[in-house]
Amino acid sequence: MSQREALIEKWKKLIELLHEKKIIHTARLTYTIAWNTFLVLLVLGILVGFFGAGIGAGYFASLVKDEPVRTYASMKNDIYNYEETSTVYFAGNQFLGKLRSDLDREKVKLKDISPYVQKAIISTEDEYFYEHHGVVPKAVLRAMLQEATGADVRTGGSTLTQQLIKNQLLTNEVSFERKAKEILLALRLERFFTKDEILQAYLNVVPFGKNSSGRNIAGIQAAAQGVFGVDADKLNLPQAAYLAGMPQNPFVYTPFTSQGTVKKDISPGLRRMKTVLNRMLTNGQITKKQYDSALKYDIKKHLTKRKKTTYERYPYLVMEVEDRTIDLLAQLNAKKDGKTYKKLKKSERQEYRDNAREQIRRGGLKIHTTINKKIYDEMQKTAQNDYNFGPNHYVTVKNSKGKNVTVSEPQEVGSILIENKTGAILSFVGGRDYHREQLNHATQAYRQNGSTMKPLLDYAPALEQGIIQPGTQIPDTKLELPGYQNGGPNNFDNRFHGIQTARSALAHSYNIPAIRLFLKVNHQQAFNNLEKMGITSITDTDRSALASPAIGGLYKGVTVEENTNAFTTFANDGKFVDAYMIDKITDRNGKVIYKHKAKPVQVYSPQTSYLLIDMMRDVLKPGGTASIVPGKLNFSADWAGKTGSSQEYKDEWFVASNPKVTLGVWHGYDTPAPVPDRHLHLALWAAFANDAYKYAPNLMAPNERFKMPAGIGRSGDLYNLKFPAHLNPFAGEIARAKIVEEQKKKKEETAKQKENEKKQNENNKKKKENNNSNDHGKNNDHKKDPGQNDNNNNGNNDRNNNGNNNGNNNGGNDGGNNNSNNGGNGSGNENKDHGQGNGHPKEKPKDKPGQ
């Protein structure tokens, strides 16, 4: 028997044995039961799984039931609706800086971000970013398990897509409902956006702590500039790794404090950087050599230095731009709502302003101004030079405890330069030190404008209404008006100057002729024209006042901008163009939402404007109140202007135009007080003009002169252009003045003649006594005939006395004339005009600080 057959025989015997013992039967029964049990359990497991899944799905659905189905447009708007800092530009699209905001962020495209940053962020925050569809299931389950069990160590389960959803569409609330919505929206976002679009949005949204100015920053571009002082595309590997580690805990890992100083210990950020580099190495994004080199990089050494914010560098300008932009946006938004902004209630206007302010802080607007950077910077240097100003004065104020204390207050200045044709504000000076006084003295401070009001409210209306011509004679004689001390107003020198031409009276800035003109013109028309020229502060008190407005005694006063802007009317052929500083505003996508459009208003005729310009040329000529100005300029141009000072010299003004621009200056104390130096405002005006000339000689010293329009008679004799004597509106006053003057002269001549006769008699008497004394002491051989001697002496005395009389009389007349003229001519020094002279009319308001 073969071996195989032997094995088969043994197997059969074994089977028989098992049958005899019933072992096989038992085994078959056990197998059947076990298999059936397995099948039952499997079915039950499947049923339970489906049931559980159903419950889970139902629970998930209940969590997201209130979440709307978002469209592509809706999600795109929400994703890109992040806070972005607005920026400002000088004229010519020259970058000025960023406006104030709670968060500094600057949008940047993915192609302008360093590849190191992209790799570092993905390696650290979402290594499967390019593989998943918005979520990683196992990561979500792991995070949910850790949340449910309260595990101390949590690895997190959010992808970059989920983080973007959380930052832009949801809140930071920790709940299953928020997590469920986050997952749903992440899946939906991945359907609408490419991976690069999601990564770009994430890098523009994520926070990065604080920058070197101490401001909160978000977005990789703001982080790159704020931490290392470079653009996002220039970041190297260690810099990229350092920044990529920050989003996990920005305020722990940031190297700067809220004051912008470097922290003493930046090791948390460095340890986080090492973690980022290690993950990049593990994921094959960098080599071991790059890893080792990056670890040796001195991060602290390469941190950017503290930078002054735009507000710190240009406080007056930033605040002015913000304020004007808020006004413009509030008006635009109200118009969109079908409302007229100026007709809204105060509370409604404030709501529009608040919304506009938020739009500036968050909207990423680009605001283009008219300000010439070089001129502006140069004028600020002049304003900050203490050498250009006089002494401080002392005022009593209440301190924080309510006690009176004496403090030193410096002289202040406000100035503005406006282009005549367009109204563009090219530059301004808001003050000497914003940190001491935040009031903008060029655009916000209201002060009485003194004699600069004369061309605006007296001479221009009188010329336009046909009351005067430049050569018209106006009496500068005593004018009695009710409500004044001493019976009426006076001039700056407390004297009267007789008959003056309109031209001479304006050049010398005499008050009485200006008031006489104001009393002749149509007041309503004159004030209406003043408002058309941009003066917004006219009150009913001003309109009803008898004479004080004629010489700048307004109840509230005017700003430097308004006063200067009004003067541009005459330099612009009688057309007023409202001054502006904001030229254009675009949104973050470059869409223009505002563009300035000039709206000229014809206020005076070209003929009136030119005649007044020609009269104001004399103000800068010898004898005029600004005769020292041309000698202080580094150039020559066809200037025409007007000086002014308020009561007791508390405000000093000078405004002048050439064919291109108008420059205005105010000088004084914040707390109104007499200014000691009577010429500083003229020196400041000249200094600012020289500053502008350095960078805009074509504007400050144009080749052309003011052009005389057609329709002006006797063009060759503009200086003496006047009405015939019988048409002079002041003919009666002049006649009376001449009679009074003749009577005065006769009285003076009679008095002098009597005085001379008295002196002559006294001289004769003394000489006679002397002669008699001499005769007694002489030898008789030398005696002469007494009668002959007396006659000779008397003849000589008569000749001498007549000579003296004539000399005295002529000297008196010349002196009188000289005294009249010296008020304006003299040494060429400026004459000043008190807001009310020495008189104090009842309607004249008290001086108030320009608030």
Short synopsis of the structure:
The chain has 851 residues and is of the alpha+beta class. 48% of the residues lie in helices and 11% in strands. Helix 18 crosses helix 20.
Our count of helices gives 29
Q: In which range does the helix fraction lie? A: 40-55%
Mean pLDDT across all residues, rounded?
83
Widest sheet, order of strands? 2-1-6-14-15
Describe the protein in words:
- It contains 29 helices and 19 strands.
- By secondary structure, the chain is of the alpha+beta class.
- The protein has a five-stranded mixed beta sheet with strand order 2-1-6-14-15, covered by helices on one side. Strands 10-9-19-18-17 form a five-stranded antiparallel beta sheet, with helices on both faces.
- A hairpin with a 5-residue loop joins β14 and β15.
- The longest helix is centred in the C-terminal third of the chain and has 47 residues, at 731-777.
- It is elongated and about 200 Å long.
- The model is unreliable at 778-851 (pLDDT under 50).
